[in-house]
């Protein structure tokens, strides 16, 4: 098999756990050389998932939760958004290399097995990005790992977000609307899925939208990178 990040050929090493547990084997798509360049997040801010040396709220989250104490996300991110992941997302999202969607399947699946939710909801893409790319990168990343419930739609956005300052971005009106069956999600543990956590704005909008439609659901979030 060829590594999806560096294209070098490699063979998957079986671990003792793979041999001992009777369960489908996770197929690694990244060679051990590339694996070593990734930075898995082990100790993090419990709210945004930022890598830290202590498991306590980071300064951004402390500030946010002082004003919005009932809007906790408990985001979990797998890897630091370092140069390797920046290059990966450039090729996957900007250049639209759809094969790369499988690169992190094994890592994500391992985490989902250990932290199962009732419902997995991907962050939707807007129509323009979908037309340009031909796929939703978030659905691409997670569809092979867990069953996805598509029940959020993105509203058309008049101004490009990149041109706005952080505070202005956090204040923008609701980005999403709910298109699902509220009764089906009632009382469920929902895991919202996105690719990269930057300011948390997308996740907070999606969480607020779900909570509005389904007041008694529990919503946490997951991203590949932070
Ligand atoms: Zn590699
Ligand atoms: Zn934080």
Automatic annotation (TrEMBL):
It comes from Loigolactobacillus zhaoyuanensis. Transmembrane segments: none annotated. CDD domains: PRTases_typeI (cd06223). PANTHER family: DNA UTILIZATION PROTEIN YHGH (PTHR47505). This is ComF family protein. InterPro entries: ComF/GntX_DNA_util-trans (IPR051910), PRTase-like (IPR029057), PRTase_dom (IPR000836). It comes from the Bacteria. Belongs to the ComF/GntX family.
